[in-house]
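Q: A reviewer asked whether we had any structural model of the full assembly, not just the individual parts. We don't, so I'm hoping you can provide one. Inputs are below.
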Amino acid sequence: MKPDDFRAWGYRLVDWIAEYLEHVERYPVLPAVQPGDIRAQLPREPPQHPEPFDQIFADFQKYILPGITHWQSPNFFAFFPANNSYPSILGELLAAGLGVQGMLWQTSPACTELETHVLDWLVDLLGLPEKFASRSTGGGVIQDTASSATLCAVLAAREQASRGFSNANGVVPRFTAYASTEAHSSVEKAWRIAGLGSAALRRIPVDDRLALRPEALEAAIRTDRQAGWIPCFVCATVGTTSTLAHDPLRPIGEIARRYGLWLHVDAAMAGTAAIWPEFRYLHDGLELADSYCFNPHKWMGVNLDCDCFFVADRQALIRALSVLPEYLRNPASESGQVIDYRDWQIPLGRRFRALKLWFVLRSFGAEGLRTLVRRHVALARLFTDWLASDPRFELAAPVSLNLVCFRLRADDATNQTFLHRLNASGRLYLTHTRVRERFTLRLCIGNLRTQEHHLRAAWQLLQQTADQLLSSPPRSLQ
Amino acid sequence: MKPDDFRAWGYRLVDWIAEYLEHVERYPVLPAVQPGDIRAQLPREPPQHPEPFDQIFADFQKYILPGITHWQSPNFFAFFPANNSYPSILGELLAAGLGVQGMLWQTSPACTELETHVLDWLVDLLGLPEKFASRSTGGGVIQDTASSATLCAVLAAREQASRGFSNANGVVPRFTAYASTEAHSSVEKAWRIAGLGSAALRRIPVDDRLALRPEALEAAIRTDRQAGWIPCFVCATVGTTSTLAHDPLRPIGEIARRYGLWLHVDAAMAGTAAIWPEFRYLHDGLELADSYCFNPHKWMGVNLDCDCFFVADRQALIRALSVLPEYLRNPASESGQVIDYRDWQIPLGRRFRALKLWFVLRSFGAEGLRTLVRRHVALARLFTDWLASDPRFELAAPVSLNLVCFRLRADDATNQTFLHRLNASGRLYLTHTRVRERFTLRLCIGNLRTQEHHLRAAWQLLQQTADQLLSSPPRSLQ
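A: Here is a predicted structure for the entire assembly that you could use as a starting point for your response.
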């Protein structure tokens, strides 16, 4: 491809993306495809000769686009959002054009320094504890996802608890970890990856609000200690995936301090809310944490992948993750004056992800991000009011921020059918969870483009679908 | 940002990137900045109000660009390359615009199916063993980097060797791993992350060509077995980072089979060469491997991040990595008819990286990629000839593919000064390694834009710098 072809196709794709995002609600949110449908249309044999880009792009539109789940649709209410935004797309484009690999400070000083700088900005913007800033003992780093951040936290905790021997001699699995029954699956995955075993992750019961019960945590730690285990790590969640419940950080942090555990706080989606001082109660006690993460790629308009991971003691992280072969040695690293982010993460190579975060923070400003959060929280309250007005529905959990968990006042099978019919319409996408064993629908409002009229249309569809479902004969007669 | 602003700025960035890449050699490859220089120019306080994009982009040009290491420069000969290309940049742009998160088939069927499809194409294009194709027992997945691929391989090996108990109960560190003294640091990092300890990674000596000695591997396995260890994992390298040495896969694979070890093959850079049948000798014996990876983001013109990781038995990988919470359950996954790539990797979320790989494979075609590889290998041979013509230089290792390891016939300190002066010129970027303890310069030719005249200019600079260095008084007199 020649530079002028790139220019022409670049313009064309920019136009296509602008058009796509302006009208993304025209597409069914979930595509009506069956397993294998996409592949069946693609040629079995790999291309031998160069193909013109117009052919490639035509195939994208013909074969790929119909198989896309439209995460950017204003009618996407599933899981948590994964937003993009125009400035963020420009950041990805520019990063791709520069093609920088920022594993070491030396391999692109600006890639490293801008990352440190914007993560320090986030400490200020979200009112995070000062120790998480690079100007203090800690610092922030961009990870791909919160799963990787949790894994890094686990590895630092493991290394600290083993007094530095775990890397050299391996870890005898005597360490225990703690997280609530509502914590994300990535905690279990990280604990397994670290060789410590799912069975040594204690799932602590939750209270009525689905938040971890600190006294149960303390009891579990004491029981484990008495049985010869070494309590090592606790993950508290600010905004669980199922219901956005938030664990009480202060009592958990005090227990972690008392028993010498590493406290990691996972605020993947909800963390963004702290841009409003009124939501900082969610972070009360965060100064007791050893590490913290949240995902600007969820609710801050930054393209996936962008998880921001902060540690209070950067040396603890580096001790856990640094391996230094000769071919990576360089004067800047040896001066001790620079950050080499390769030692803050699992992979070696890294993209220039700070660029999109910088573009978003400056394009929106704290003000723009506050407006976004406020609007989504208000919409969730509105939806809650609508639910309350229809006796066929009930809330399944306390409403927190921008997530509403609800169900039909009916059995699980009916709710399952309800969800299936809603999603099959293509007019929205909701996902489910279980709250106290019961099948529960989740509606998360986090898309930049979601306006009241989208939510109203969703509510109408919910009501119509409920009408049809509840008036049809019982399943056993069908 | 409004759609029309995005259009205007999108065009502008596309133009800027085209201009940048056409003239990237105008920039000093390594920027002349000191630690902290970039940050010192950025405002300490985060932005409160939205800023216009022209201000942001002006700041990029003024503050960030001068701190970039230009990986896309034709004069970048350091490490291994990390290429982008026009079709790949378009792929990143389109993926950013779609903003898809492909953790499950259901969360974007086309994201998953296109990935499976292009990775099957690569099995054909590179002549990889059929078992690595999804139509067989295995399959391929895109990881961010080879480090993550190696970690996934380690975890699958650990789980298999522990007969499924390592995830549940943790791993008592009795497992041993094997890799040559020349293998990449990511093998040690993965082994440590898995809780198995650096000390249990046996570094096997190499032969004259810096390739792992199979008989030494077998001896180490036998010794470990007798001492009660459980040999579990061996990593063979096709193209080591220091010198592009390649381990003999067939005898290593036979030993791995005999003793029940998982064989992972790391061909991060060199794997691309297999697009030429004449280079497939590098993969001789690969059918004995359990997993394999190479990085299209190194030598195939695909933007970082794009590591292709193949396994012979996909169930072994999934058993090691799958954790299934309620909120990720869905009918497609439960049908067993789809791939959910979240279970093939460390993170949960994932970008639509197959798009850029698909764009590159079709835009270049196998033919275009072959031309690229051929040209770089020819340039490395040319450079080797030049070296041979100047008695002040010597080869430090056998020349393989597109990497030349060399030094001045002088002591380490002189070679270190030589490298420092070369890089300080800004006219190229080389990195070093140690070969048999001796300081060695590496020149890797892998950039899409590198032509003979760039290499000739590099050679002239090397000669001139050698002239100055070798004619100046010895260091002790300075």
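A: Points you may want to mention in the reply: Chain A touches chain B through 155 residues (CB under 8 Å). Chain A has two domains: 1-30+69-84+367-478, 100-352.
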